[in-house]
Amino acid sequence: MNRPSRGLIGLVAVAAMVLSASACAGGGKEDKGPDSSIGFAECVQKPNTCNTGKTKAGGTIVYGLGKDIKAWNTLSSAGNTLEYSYALFGVLPRVHLFYPDLSVQVNKDLMDSVEITSKSPMTVVYKIKKEAVWNNGDPVSADDFIYTWKVQNAKDCPLCKPATTAGFSSVDTLTGSDGGKTVTMVFKDPYPDWQGLFVPLYPGKFAATKGDLATSFTWLEQNVPTYSAGPYKIDKYESNFALTLVPNDKWWGAKPPLDKVIFRIITKDSELIPAMRNREINVMAPIPTADLVAQAKELSDSHWYLGKNLSWEHIDLNLKNPVLADKALRQAIFTAIDRQAIIDKTVGQYAPGTKPIGSHNFVPGMTAYKDLVESTGQGKGNIEGAKKILTDAGYKIEGGKLLTKAGTAVPTLRMRHTTGNQLRKDTCELVAESLKKLGIDVKVEQTDDLGGTLTKGDFDIMIFAWVLSPLRIGGAKQLWHSTSASNYGKWVNPESDKLLEEAAKTVGDDPKAHELINQADALMSADAYVLPLFQREVFISVNKQYTNLRPNPTNHGSVYNIGTWGLLDQAQ
User: Fold this and answer.
1) Cys bridge to 560: 138, 179, 410, 556, which one at CB 3.0-4.6 A?
2) Considering only CA atoms, which of 19, 16, 15, 17 is closest in space to residue 365?
């Protein structure tokens, strides 16, 4: 969230519908594609190995993190936020990793093997490294897999509020053997995105000391982790200031080169460049703005990269608001919003050629991508068309105010965006300007707790981004099924639910699954629930003293290899 984020991974080398390296640029004649400084010049052709170098022992790196951490359980709907995931990437173990080339690879630090041993019933066997342990000495074992499954399968813990149950609810049994180092997972229904489960794992044995499943799930959300099964552990957390990681002395893998990784919390975009210039931070990967990109290019001591990633900005409506429960009003709101004008005044200033996208599940370059919004007329800035939708439905505009069919004024709508995000603030103001022409007042508000705001439904209109994984079949059910906690605006459509459920069971026939998802998407597009804006850019700037950092367009981001980051050894 900035980007709520969920991901999947596994044995496959590359997912069938990933955005290829050559497709990193969006359409438009003026779009020149990825742009970079010399240090990242090879990242298009060699995305997994660019900016690789020999490291020297010691040192500290400071990463600018755009949100204060409000929840520590990234499995929960409140903790399903990209920045939270980044901060804990070096702490929590993951069965698979998403690489910059969009490949999905087994985490060889954690696993000896991951194998599908049967197709009927679908069975996956995980073999965990014997030496893999949590920093309290507990082995990484079947206990962790079972706990992570039970709190997300919608059956064993009905009081848990996971970000998704997709995949986990399709598992029939999960059992351990070989002293807990072998885990066998048997599905009751096949699940095509099975590789994305257990990304990450939480410590099952430790969690059990905090109470039952629901109690421990909440405890993990509210408390700073003392546990780790990654290359780093948390040394200290200073609210609204910084999270400091130090090497985990129980880590069994290659020792990380750095003495410390500090995630410095900077929620205002305007403070990033001064912090980079003064070396208060060494890395930043914010949502770019024209000013940020222009100023970052002037930092002579840093590398920078700008290119398309697997995320998309969108505007959501809260259907729990009685006035927004009316489809005609929603359609009019989206018809009045001018997406291209928003692009031209925001992202288009540094990524010319950016166009509106028309899918809620795929981005341009993916084989499954279809524009399902264009035919609805939404996002065109058609004020007169929006007014006609309203008058045909019995609304009236009198004295500059929109009146419902009952003759009452449509109340002021609260449109919220993340604190300090200039791009989203500008977008909100443009939306407010458009809706004013319909007699709708919009109050723009900030939030410093995106996950909490979304989970509580504390908004009328919301702008944020979904950051996709390379695997997308199960992800559609996570986002849009009526029972999903990630369906924050509470859209309900039984026909869509059936299509998404069928897609989530479709294994080995991606085109069929994609078509089912697109059919469900067409229903949602017509219902005017979420308006896609544009595919976003990945942007990163890194001080030249550091090596092994590189752009990663997936939801694992540049932290996917945090254990290898280090100071560049320039000795000849």
Assistant:
1) 556
2) 19
Pairing verdict, β 283-284 and 60-65: parallel
CA distance linking residue 529 with residue 178, whole number of Å: 49
Query: Quick one: tokens of 327?
Result: 């489809």
Q: What tokens were used for 229?
A: 């099964």
Question: Strand pairing of 530-543 and 302-317?
Answer: antiparallel
Report the relative pairing of strands 232-238 and 242-247 from DSSP bridges: antiparallel
Closest CA to 114 of 220, 169, 2, 196: 196
pLDDT in tens, the chain (572 residues): 344 544 322 222 222 222 222 222 233 334 445 777 777 989 989 999 999 999 999 999 999 999 999 999 999 999 999 999 999 999 999 999 999 998 899 999 999 999 999 989 999 999 999 999 999 999 999 999 999 999 999 999 999 999 989 899 999 999 999 999 999 999 998 888 899 999 999 999 999 999 999 999 999 999 999 999 999 999 999 999 999 999 999 999 999 999 999 999 999 989 999 999 999 999 999 988 889 999 999 999 999 999 888 889 999 999 999 999 999 999 999 999 999 999 999 999 888 889 999 999 998 878 899 999 999 999 999 999 999 999 999 999 999 999 999 999 999 999 999 998 888 999 999 999 999 999 999 999 999 999 899 999 999 999 999 987 777 676 888 899 999 888 999 999 999 999 999 998 887 788 999 999 999 999 999 999 999 999 988 899 999 999 999 999 888 999 999 999 999 998 64
List, in order, residues 6 or more apart from 367 with CB less than 8 Å away.
16, 17, 514
Q: Which of 62, 90, 52, 39 is nearest to 547 (CA)?
A: 52
Q: Is 526 helix (H, G, I), strand (E, B) or coil?
A: helix
